[in-house]
Amino acid sequence: MDWHRWFHSLPRRFTFTRIGGIFTGVTVLVSIGAFNTGNNLLYLLFGMLLSLMIASGVLSEEVMKGLVVERRFPRQVFATVPTLVTLKLHNRKRRIPSFSVTVTDRIPGLTAPENYFLKVDAQGTAQVSYRITFPHRGWWTVTGYEISTRFPFDLFCKVRVFREPVSVLVYPALAPVPNLRFLALVGQGTRPQVQAGGEGEFLSLRDFRTGDDARRIHWKASARRDTWLLRDLERQDSEALTLYFYPVAPPSLEPQRLEQGVSVCAGLAQELLQRGYPLALVTPQERTAMGRGLSHLDSILRLLAVVEFSPQPPTQAPLTAQDRCIVLSAGRMPNLGAAQLLAHLPF
């Protein structure tokens, strides 16, 4: 690829600074006086002023050559929460450093702050960070960035636009969780539950009691202790919960109320996973796998980030008889089919 031709084909613009406007005005007046009077001193002054303008254009162009921006967003970006973005400016020129350069991200719908670099050495890298807040969840596009400079005399501001689209998925804000009294109906999160049947992982040993299943006697331990000892097994599915987010709402409902419902669902998912509950998120269109721990939170937040509201209810409930549901809906209670209802949280 011909990098020199590609660089010079990029869109660019320049504007006069306040000092540059005054300087240009003085240059024009001196040129008029020189041509009208034929004074050699005025011709000399006009040539000097004009040479400074030409030098300013040439040097600013040289400063902006070979500059490449590397941008890094954090792994999780939440709506309404300031996000720390890291910019690295690489100078690919072999011998010439770049001075007084400003880099600004181009994000439609937002105004990104300007990031100033005093000097970037040849073959060197400079780094800066800034904060930006995305007002709502969903996909955002960073269309590229602008590199500008006023070097060397602050006469002009030269700007070059780089088109490098990057998509950023913004998660919904995490709202405070509602009352969780319904958790009294299930287990204690990270505390293991005893399995009454014959399947499950080993949990503990205890004394044999009347009515216990003799097939679960631990014979070796019983022989050492000279008493009957029984194996308790851990129940694997005793605490599994399903968050059913029902995004069906009339068009007259305020968008702020609907987005608050998404934030409540996200906050509730985080709280349940922190407590150790296996959790799945279900919407009429999609369903996440059942998972445990905060490592599973990303898959839930990704689904909530792109969920869309609709006035039409689904044709059938995307639930099974094994689902124990915590329902979040815009007032109306959806059809759960054979699933079990633990709580209904309207928003």
Gist of the model:
The chain has 347 residues and is of the alpha+beta class. It contains six helices and 15 strands. α2 packs antiparallel against α3 (40-64) and α5 (255-274) runs antiparallel to α6 (297-306).
Written description of the protein model:
The protein is α+β, with helices and mostly antiparallel strands. It folds into three domains: 1-170, Immunoglobulin-like, CATH 2.60.40.10; 194-235, no CATH class; 239-346, no CATH class. It is 25% helix and 32% strand. It has helices at 3-8, 18-37, 40-64, 219-225, 255-274, 297-306, and strands spanning 12-16, 67-72, 83-91, 98-106, 115-120, 125-132, 138-149, 156-170, 193-195, 201-207, 229-235, 241-246, 279-282, 324-329, 340-346. Strands 1-8-7-4-5 form a five-stranded antiparallel β-sheet. Strand 7 and strand 8 (156-170) form a beta hairpin. Helix 2 (18-37) packs antiparallel against helix 3 and helix 5 runs antiparallel to helix 6 (297-306). The protein starts with a helix and ends with a strand. Residues 3-9 and 189-198 have low confidence and may be disordered.
